[in-house]
Amino acid sequence: MKSAILDEPQTIKSFDKGNMLDFCFNSAKLYREGAKLADKIKVCYSKPDNIIVAGMGGSGIGGDLLKDWVRNKTDVPIEVNRDYNLPAYAGKKTLVLLTSYSGDTEESLGAFLDALRRKCMIFCVSSGGAVLENAERLKVPYLRVPGGMSPRAALPYLFVPLIACLEKMGLAAGASEELKEALKLLEKISKDNSPDKLVKENFSKTLALNIGQTAPVVYGSGYYRSVAMRFKQQFNENSKVPAKWEVFSELNHNEIVGWESAGELAKCFSTIFIRDRDEPTEISSRIQITKELVTKAGLPLYEVHTQGESSLARMLSTICIGDFTSVYLAVLRGVDPTPVKTINYLKDTLKQNGVKEKIIGELAKLS
Ligand code: F6R
Question: 305 catalytic, yes or no?
Answer without folding.
Answer: no
